């Protein structure tokens, strides 16, 4: 139901007991590899989701999103309706299933993460919810376990059969470094951004609805390709040539995943900004042509970025079908490059793009 826009003080009738936050993420390389047990290189965004919490005094859960101006109320034995409350309820229920006595709570959410842009607003909500409960109840919960619970909340309660990259990045990453992730082992490593470079994220203006996209279809295609190749997951294929015997479209889907993993591993080994940009370009072409998750607006934006003299490379970020793209730029030039490209797109009547954020964020 709709609610009158509330401040935290009004919602809690005083100060909350805890106030935590979690960032979104931008993925630089390794798209659609996490649910294939593969590798990825995300960074955290300066934009974030805040969750405040306190114990409820009436035996009910009360969830309120100031971003959406929506309130959700449900009893301990009931379920939240579909929407932001389902993500939060999933976190609560999974903790309860692990033996954590989560009492009825009041939880207030606000976020400056743009929804539907592929910056992982859902993972930030899940991670921030779990952090709030951890802080409130003083529960032992390390960052990796927290990410695993957050992922299961999205799969089992929101109906999105996601990999674990978004939740791991929101739980463990920062905006100063890349986070190398191995989806099979959950090993992770903090790495520097390429020297002399910074990032700009551009919103295409086309919203993305992940649960309604072909994300689950792509996952099923990858599972079918793995079965035909006789491997546990596409991560176990190390030579792109090995997928050529598959029928279409499984061949194309597998070719993207295998080549994308190789790009991540090359970048992890240490490359300069120019080569990293080339790897980002190759990633986008593969997502466009083999994985077929790009759209015209993202193709136009990334191509416009590649022609800018201060851009090393650009690609869509997130699952695709809309959302944002990310570009690696010369240090100190990303903001100007982003503005030039956005203005160029507007002049030619292209995507309704807008420069979303710089990473790392400029000093205050």
From TrEMBL:
Keywords: ATP-binding, Carbohydrate metabolism, Galactose metabolism, Kinase, Nucleotide-binding, Transferase. Residues 272-337 form the GHMP kinase C-terminal domain. One of its GO terms (molecular function) is galactokinase activity. It comes from the Bacteria. The keyword ATP-binding applies. Pfam families: GalKase_gal_bdg (PF10509), GHMP_kinases_C (PF08544), GHMP_kinases_N (PF00288). Its EC number is 2.7.1.6. Belongs to the GHMP kinase family. GalK subfamily. This is Galactokinase. It comes from Pseudoduganella chitinolytica.
């Amino acid at each position: 139901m709709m609610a009158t826009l509330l401040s935290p003080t009004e919602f809690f009738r005083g100060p909350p007991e805890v106030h935590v936050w979690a960032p979104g993420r931008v993925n630089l390389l390794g798209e659609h590899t996490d649910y294939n047990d593969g590798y990825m290189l995300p960074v955290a965004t300066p934009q974030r989701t805040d969750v405040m919490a306190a114990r409820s005094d009436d035996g009910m859960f009360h969830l309120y999103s100031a971003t959406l101006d929506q309130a959700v109320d449900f009893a301990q034995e009931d379920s939240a309706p579909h929407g932001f409350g389902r993500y939060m309820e999933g976190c609560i229920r999974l903790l309860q299933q692990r033996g954590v006595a989560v009492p009825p709570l009041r939880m207030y959410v606000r976020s400056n993460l743009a929804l539907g842009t592929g910056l992982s607003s859902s993972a930030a909500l899940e991670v921030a919810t779990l952090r709030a409960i951890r802080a409130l109840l003083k529960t032992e919960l390390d960052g990796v376990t927290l990410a695993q619970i957050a992922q299961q909340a999205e799969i089992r309660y929101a109906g999105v059969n996601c990999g674990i990259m978004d939740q791991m990045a929101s739980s463990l990453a920062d905006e100063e470094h890349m986070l190398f992730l191995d989806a099979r082992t959950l090993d992770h490593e903090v790495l520097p951004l390429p020297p002399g470079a910074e990032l700009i994220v551009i919103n295409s203006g086309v919203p993305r609805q992940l649960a309604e996209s072909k994300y689950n279809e792509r996952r099923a295609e990858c599972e079918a390709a793995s079965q035909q190749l006789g491997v546990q997951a596409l991560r176990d294929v190390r030579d792109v040539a090995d997928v050529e015997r598959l029928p279409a479209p499984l061949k194309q889907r597998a070719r993207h995943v295998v080549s994308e993993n190789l790009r991540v591993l090359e970048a992890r080994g240490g490359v300069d900004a120019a080569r990293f940009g080339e790897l980002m370009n190759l990633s986008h072409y593969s997502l466009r042509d083999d994985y077929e998750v790009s759209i015209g607006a993202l193709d136009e934006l990334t191509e416009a970025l590649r022609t800018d003299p201060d851009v090393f490379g650009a690609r869509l970020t997130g699952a695709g079908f809309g959302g944002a793209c990310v570009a690696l730029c010369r240090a100190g030039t990303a903001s100007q490059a982003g503005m030039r490209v956005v203005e160029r797109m507007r002049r030619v009547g292209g995507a309704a793009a807008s420069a979303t954020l710089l990473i790392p964020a400029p000093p205050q």
